[in-house]
Please model this.
Amino acid sequence: MTDNELLLAISDMLDPIREDIQEMKSRVKKIEIMQENELLPRLSTIESCYTSTYDRYKDNVETYESMKQDISIIKKVVAEHSEKFYKLA
Model:
């Protein structure tokens, strides 16, 4: 075989690989477009919701603790007043 014939044979063997590479490039491009148009906006929305929820919790956690203490005190006072009321009745 001549060098030219060997090169042609190698080129023929590479043709299916070239086609596969082109197909993979096309699929990767579609995936990139889908990520850009669908996934990234959704992730951004999820991040925004998570961040705002975290900020609300962080800002109000002290208020929640204070409310829990107040409710505990109110329960005790109501229980004491109920006992006194039933003793008077």
